[in-house]
Amino acid sequence: MTDSPAGRHISAEIDEQPAVFARLLAARAATSEVASVIARRRPRFALLAARGSSDHAALYAKYLIEVLLELPAGLVSPSTTTLYGARPDLGDVLLITVSQSGGSPDLVEVTERARAAGALTVAVTNTAESDLSGVAELGVDVQAGPEVAVAATKTYSATLLALYLLVDAVRGGSGEHAAALPDLAAETLADSVEPVAEAVRRWRFVDRVVTTGRGFSSATAAEAALKLAETSYLSARSYSGADLLHGPVAAVDEETAVLAVAGQGAGGTATSSVLDVVGSRGADVVAVGSAAHTLTASVHIGVPATAEEVAPVIEVLPVQRLALGLSVARGFDPDRPRGLNKVTKTR
Q: What biological processes does GO assign it (predicted)?
């Protein structure tokens, strides 16, 4: 009896994403009901609590809330509640807790305490019967279905789409910019096979990776660094394009691999000048996104053009494929990253 092929679970879950998106769009009415409650309560600002990949989804939501709703938004430090016992006044505040498992004790405690302090609490999770869902006032199911691989793929992208549909509905939108995402996701997966394979060939023996993006795509860059670290054990760091130029670029040289994420829009335009500096230092650059071909890079992995605010939902797909391919090429099994479990419990 032979062992199962390395990465077969994560590969299947990456390929499942167009169907997951279609399922989420079909259930948009339930998300809109949650959004109507938020709109009626008229929060004065929003807070987001999350860990791991969900923290990157929360970063994406922060941009959505600040740009589309024009509300100030911030990322919570759970330890201020769980370790230090802080009890801020959260009256008229929206707290969105993002967790695919809904099982991390710190996120459950933060949500429970926030609700007691007056916040409107919303759990965004792939586990509707979780402890997190039990303590939150409202819940959004990301509809991704069971995820076997330890590294999150379909739960991450489904969470992005669920957050977009929620925020868009709060502002009275119809989700029109998301309607084509199932088809665009399938197109992205099909068209990215060859350029991803080329990127894997170039980066098989790299040791250091820097990922970068601006605006909405900064969440994709952060998720890319995590995926490369947890599946290929690379030293991977993520910086916004602006922060990269404020010091860390000094460490970039011809031994550095750089993954740049850029969609059409303000964020992608701002990334172009960053890549000019990075390229001049001899780094090997792989560019991903609908604006990838406008950037100076060794490999361009394009995705279909969309409204900028939904681009992260599909631009992360070739990034997931890159993480899978590199892990297998380097002799690892991305389904079973060493030292990691599917549900991480922290306090």
A: carbohydrate derivative metabolic process
Three-state secondary structure of 255-297: CEEEEEECCCCHHHHHHHHHHHHHHHCCCEEEEECCCHHHCCC
Dist. CA 37–CA 205, nearest whole Å: 51
Residue with tokens 């429970």: 112
**Which residues in the chain belong to E strands, given as ranges?**
45-50, 73-75, 93-98, 120-125, 138-141, 208-213, 235-240, 256-261, 284-288, 299-301
Is the distance from CB of 53 to CB of 157 less than 8 angstroms? Answer: no
Domain hosting residue 198, numbered range: 181-329
In a domain, 119, yes or no: yes
Judge residue 45's burial from the number of C-beta atoms within 10 Å of its C-beta, 0-12 exposed, 13-18 middle, 19 or more buried. middle
Q: Over the stretch 273-321, which tens digit does the pLDDT of each residue have?
A: 787 778 778 889 999 999 999 988 999 999 999 999 999 999 999 999 9
> Would you call 341 exposed, middle or buried from its count of C-beta atoms within 10 A (0-12, 13-18, 19+)?
exposed
Q: Which residues are catalytic?
A: 342
Same domain, 107 and 249: no
Asked whether residue 3 is domain-assigned, the answer is: no
Residue 346 belongs to some domain of the structure: no
> Looking at the structure, do residues 30 and 169 belong to the same domain, yes or no?
yes
224 and 312: one domain? Answer: yes
Pairing of strands 138-141, 93-98: unpaired
Identify which of 157, 174, 182 has the alpha carbon closest to the alpha carbon of residue 31. 174
CB-side neighbour CA atoms (13 Å) of 87: 7
Q: Which residue has the tokens 């060859």?
A: 194
Residue 174 and residue 190 share a domain: no
Task: Give 85-142 pLDDT, tens digit per residue.
Answer: 889 999 999 999 999 999 999 999 999 999 999 999 999 999 999 999 999 999 999 9
Q: What are the Cα distances from residue 48, in Å, to 45, 65, 165?
A: 10, 10, 16
Exposed/middle/buried for residue 339 (C-beta within 10 Å: 0-12, 13-18, 19+): exposed
Q: How far apart, in whole angstroms, are the C-alpha atoms of residue 185 and residue 21? A: 9
